[in-house]
Amino acid sequence: MKVFRNVAIYLLIILLAVLLIKWANPPDEPDTSLTYTEFTQSVEAGKVKEVSVVINNNYNVYTVTMNDGKTYSVVGETGDQTLVDTLKDKNVPVVFNPPATTPWWANVLPTVLMFLFIIGLFFYMMQQTQGGGSKVMQFGKSRARLVTDETKYTFKDVAGVDEVKEELEEIVEFLKSPRKFTEIGAKIPKGVLLFGPPGTGKTLLAKAVSGEAGVPFFSISGSDFVEMFVGVGASRVRDLFEQAKKNAPCIVFIDEIDAVGRHRGAGLGGGHDEREQTLNQLLVEMDGFNGNEGIIIIAATNRPDILDPALLRPGRFDRQVVVNVPDIKGREDILAVHVKGKPLADDVNLEVLARRTPGFTGADLANLVNEAALLTARRNEKEISMKAMEDSIERVIAGPEKKSRVISDFEKKLVSYHEAGHALLGEYLPHTDPLHKVSIIPRGRAGGYTLLLPKEDRNYMTKSQLLDQVTMLLGGRVAEALVLKEISTGASNDLERATGIVRKMITELGMSEELGPITFGHKEEQVFLGKDIARDRNYSESVAQAIDNEVRRIIDESYQRAQDIIIEKMDILHAIAEALMENETLEAEGFLEIIARFDESRKENLLKLRESNGKKSVQAAESQDHVSSEEQDEIKTAEDLSYE
After folding, report:
1. Tens of pLDDT along 132-159?
2. SS3 of 81, please?
């Protein structure tokens, strides 16, 4: 096909060249034309200087040159003896020229080339309409791509998900050595569903299976099944499994299966739509009357809650594997994979970086290493240093610094006291994480930020921890009100998050003493899940009023608690704010030095930090970690999205 396409292109170029030459070199034409009568009259009047005659079968073509040098063309009849005599009498020179002849190929070539071009264009369009899976006439053909060994991944390239690797390694081993399992009556799993948060490595695991299995591996996206024409999705499913059967044993990987596997009978536009036909066909192919021996389906999604129950049952997806956010050991292994081949400085400590990044997914860590490499190149350094890694962590968390942003003295003071309020409460509240850094340098959308890093990975949070989080979030507003006697929009995001935490404590976590251990309302459901649309709560108006009152009570108590602490430690608040106005950023050690100057009981924290720094200077303030997992995303205090 490629050769044919090249020939068609060459023919087109030749045709255009011929037409261009003919257009650029037209035959010499006279200035204008005369009627035969005007020509004879001019001859009789002696105005004609010379005549050139081309004799044809039925007519003559005269090229007449006048005395003034102008040239005219005249078409006249043949055999006009009167004209001949007049020309002789006037002594006008007459030149007879043979008729102009054009080579036959010159007449035929443009027509032939145009004909060949039209034929070539026709065949090219036919090829386009009848080609592979993305062509016009192949709507019903599967778009599954047979993966080759060009970009081969193995399980060595996957880190931080050891349990998931074990599940998939067993399937690969079954494909390589089936007798080991069949001898004791074991059957190979028909399907494996990988689900978890975005960026945890589900697709990468599938690529690793492709590299390890040694059998044909078909890859397709869930959205590739659905098309604008009815019946196309089901046809593509049939074609996919036909290809798989021809290449069995093989593996079929369906990425983002939620695009085609959503709960049936849902939505507002009727139940029997194109997506449902596609899903029905997929269910039949995976476990229907026709066996699919040797075909293993691996699917990935981050929305398992919206998948149809029939798709999830054993016999279709025998194994459902959670690919979760990696723990500290997993993060260290992932970082080791991504720094491989990059020039690292001697001070880079992956264990420290892993401790500092709880809640980071594999994609986040890959982005972190890449940001550090970009930052190193921007600074014209030859090796990626620990400082570059640290700066990249903050860049990933809060966005890039906006050092060029100019703010007034009043706004600088406002942001300083706001962040000082957060930091002070973070130190004196018993259940908050240690402070790592507080800064008034704008990052991303934040005008300033207070970064608290947990000491360890955390899967659960206590009521006391949540209440301390709420109190700390209110610290910025309290500091503004107490010191500046004015409040600003700077606390808008703090208030939103604090209210969200308290409402969740009451309605979902049963942490209200007034309302008891009860959950209220439904979690947010989407229409396509087939859930209730109008009914969004399962409690009365009086209970709703009680919930609102309880939210107000907890917020008020937390606000008063924050106010009491800040009033008691007002000298420390002023010192922190002044240090921020002068230096713009306070690291953990500098912050604790200020605290220790005013509070002798806090010197122990400073000594512990300095002792840690003495063991490894590169680990300054590294024993604390960053913000925590999914449950804490909405309650993290890493940034203040206020001063935009």
Report:
1. 444 444 555 655 666 665 557 888 888 8
2. helix
Tokens, residue 478: 């309290």
> Is residue 283 within 8 Å of residue 300, measured between CB atoms?
no
3-state secondary structure of 218: strand
Distance of CA 268 to the CA centre of its chain: 29
Q: What is the mean predicted confidence (pLDDT) over 167-188?
A: 84
* Among the ranges given (389-398, 505-514, 590-599), the one the predictor scored with the smallest mean pLDDT: 389-398
Q: Which of 93-102, 392-401, 448-457, 612-621 is predicted least confidently?
A: 612-621
Angle between the N-to-C axes of helices 588-598 and 570-583, in degrees from 0 to 180, rounded to the nearest 10: 140
User: In one letter, which amino acid is 629?
Assistant: S
Exposed, middle or buried by CB within 10 Å (0-12, 13-18, 19+), for 517? exposed
Residues in the chain: 644
Predicted confidence (pLDDT) per residue in 496-555, tens digit: 999 999 999 999 999 998 898 988 886 654 444 444 444 456 788 999 999 999 999 999
Compute φ and ψ for 442, nearest 5 degrees.
-60, 140
- Residue-level pLDDT at 471: 96
Q: Which helix (H) or strand (E) holds 433?
A: none
Instruction: Taking residues 438-453, report their average pLDDT.
Output: 82
Q: Are 218 and 145 in contact (CB under 8 A)?
A: yes
Contacts of 414 (CB under 8 A, 6+ apart): 480, 484, 488, 490
Q: Which of 163, 155, 269 is nearest to 213 (CA)?
A: 155
Residue 644: pLDDT band by 50, 70, 90 thresholds? very low
Query: Which residue type, as a one-letter code, is found at position 511?
Result: M
Distance CA 60, CA 78 (A): 6
Count CB atoms within 10 A of the CB of residue 557.
13
Cβ density class 262-298: b for 16+ within 10 Å, e for less? bbbebbeeeeebbbbbbbbbbbebbbeeeebebbbbb
Smallest CA-to-CA distance from 423 within 611, 584, 592 is with: 592
Residue 598, pLDDT > 60, answer yes
Compute the CA torsion angle 230, 233, 238, 239 (nearest 10 deg): 100
| Pairing state between β 48-55 and 94-97 | parallel
Statement: residue 268 has pLDDT above 60: no
Looking at mean pLDDT, say which of 88-102, 463-477, 508-522 comes out highest: 463-477
Neighbouring CB atoms inside 10 A of 552's CB total: 12
Tell the burial category of 227 from Cβ atoms under 10 Å away from its Cβ (0-12, 13-18, 19+).
middle
**How far apart, in whole angstroms, are the C-alpha atoms of residue 587 and residue 39?**
105
Return phi, psi of residue 394, to 5°. -65, -35
Instruction: Tell me the three state secondary structure of residue 436.
Output: strand
In 91-188, where do the E strands start and end? 94-97, 145-146
Is pTM, for the whole model, over 0.85? no
Pairwise CA distance, residues 299 & 319, whole Å: 11
Q: Which 3 state secondary structure label does DSSP give 142?
A: coil
Instruction: Give the start-end residues of each E strand in 5-81.
Output: 32-33, 48-55, 60-66, 71-76
Does pLDDT of 39 surpass 50? Answer: yes
Q: What is the pLDDT, as a whole number, of residue 568? A: 94
Q: Please, which residues have CB within 8 angstroms of residue 122's CB and are 6 or more apart in sequence?
A: none
Per-residue exposure over 53-88, b if at least 16 CB sit within 10 Å of its own CB, e if not? beeeeeebbbbbbeeeeebbebebeeeeeebeeebe
As annotated, the active-site residues are 419
